[in-house]
Amino acid sequence: MSCLFENLRQSARLSRSSCATYLQVNISTINRWIKGTAKPSYAVYELLRCVAGYIPAVSCHKSLDFKGWRFVDEYIYTSDGDRFTAGDILAIKIMYQQLSDHRSTIKALKGQVKLLKSEVLSMNAPVVPDNVIKFPTFARS
To answer: For domain 2-93, which CATH number applies: 1.20.950, 1.10.3470, 1.20.120, 1.10.260?
Structure first.
């Protein structure tokens, strides 16, 4: 686990002292986390993932500034005072992935519709609107 913390800290481009300042903990706490003698909360990991840009839903907003974000117990607080749990961040990641998957599906379906329309037009067949149904007529005897 300490390797994960150290990797995230380095990915976020934070020195040990700046990381301690950022997370509002003592530098000895950072050293204990790195050595593995103490374990940071999940909220610490999620906040560092945000700062390092590993959460696309959060990091894609270029105007987002993580200065002033902090963690207390298992909560991440934004500089505006909004509070998130690590579970909230996980839910955001999942929703972003689902949105991305849906966008890909919609794009693929639009391509298929375009292809089908061009095939219909190439047949030189009259195009009947979807809401019109033609029934055959029979002569009565």
So the answer is: 1.10.260
